[in-house]
Design brief:
Blueprint: E1 2-7, H1 18-23, E2 29-36, E3 39-42, E4 51-54, E5 58-59, H2 65-68, H3 86-96, E6 100-106, H4 111-116, E7 121-123, E8 129-134, H5 139-153, E9 160-164, E10 184-185, H6 187-194, H7 199-207, H8 212-228, E11 231-232, H9 236-244, H10 246-274, E12 281-287, E13 297-298, H11 301-307, E14 310-314, H12 319-326, E15 335-341, H13 353-362, E16 367-371, H14 378-391
Parallel strand pairs: 1-2, 1-16, 2-6, 6-9, 9-12, 10-11, 12-13, 12-14, 14-15, 15-16
Antiparallel strand pairs: 2-5, 3-4, 7-8
Length: 394
Amino acid sequence: MKASAFLYPWDVVGDPEAAARLAGLGVQQVTLASAYHSTRALTPRHPGRRIVTAEHAAVLYPPDAARWTGRGLRPYAQSWVAGEDPYAEAAEALADAGLQVHSWVVLAHNSRLGAEYPGTSVVNAYGDRYPWAPCIAQPAVHAYLVDLAAEAAVRPGATGTELESCGWYGFAHLHAHDKTSGVALGDAAQYLMSLCFCADCRAGYASVGLDAEELRTAVRRSLEPVWAGPGSGEQGWEGVEKLLGAGLAEATLRWRGQVARGLQEASVAAVRAAAPGPDFQVLLHADPAPHRTGANVGTDPAHILSTADGVVLPCTGGDAAREAVLGPFAGLSGVLAANFNVVSGMGGSPGTLERDAAHAASLGANELRLYHAGLASGPDLGAVTKALSAVRGG
């Protein structure tokens, strides 16, 4: 199975040994961030630094002035990695080491955008804005994300791209110093807390036969027992229907699914139009549960594989979790990349990678993604190298 490791440009820039070290893991590809959200990242093997603080969402290359001049919503430049084009510098070093490169593009996750343009953010049923979550139903946001996808995906040297957060973002996000775990919210309650009530979404609800104010009231009423009690452990779409009622729940999903599919179709089309040739791969980070929000956006498996070349699916966890994610894609053609967290300190299990990868392959996965080669410890990477050697048959 082809394996690719996620990486940041700052893991490579300034470290002449980084590319060869990555190739030594046994991966054939690196998925390299070109547009990313704010983060504080460890660089345990870099010769010149140990911490990189990416203060805001930014592109890791010089954005095209001709594309963005005069536009309010535009990508932000970075200032925490030396050089004019850290992405290109890292990609060239990786290619020289014999590795293919995919760009890694984070789209609808941008706290600085929400801070500077608060009207672009998701607004929940209580009127609270989520500055990290741009509302993809807004035409200006949609246009910005589609153009960002095309520019950030098709970087020099990239043979493909992997689009993260190409859909709805919502409540569940590790925002700065989060203090949101006092009441346990299951998957279903998080969906209700992720419903947007900005002007565009209110009009959208009307288009599927919903009165936005009645829906907002119903959402708040459904959540009252959650706030008054120990929380809600309701999971899955059945949990959403139990909390909100099947009719209302289905109507919200109809509107949101329409919007997400529109963004995905437009983004993929824009990337393909900008790509250097027909072999340029376009993959989406996805989840087959259509109500899911976040990095791995909810999708309809048949639709997304008729739109993109494949998907990157969250496969860390037990067998049941992998079966739930990969099962709905059974019998469909395309790249099914099983994404495994291999950072022990972040909940990953590199020691079981060989066994977990084999299980994913038995469910139809045909590629591997490893999160994250730049963050993992030496022992974690040693376990990855051993596992990949076994996967290759020695």
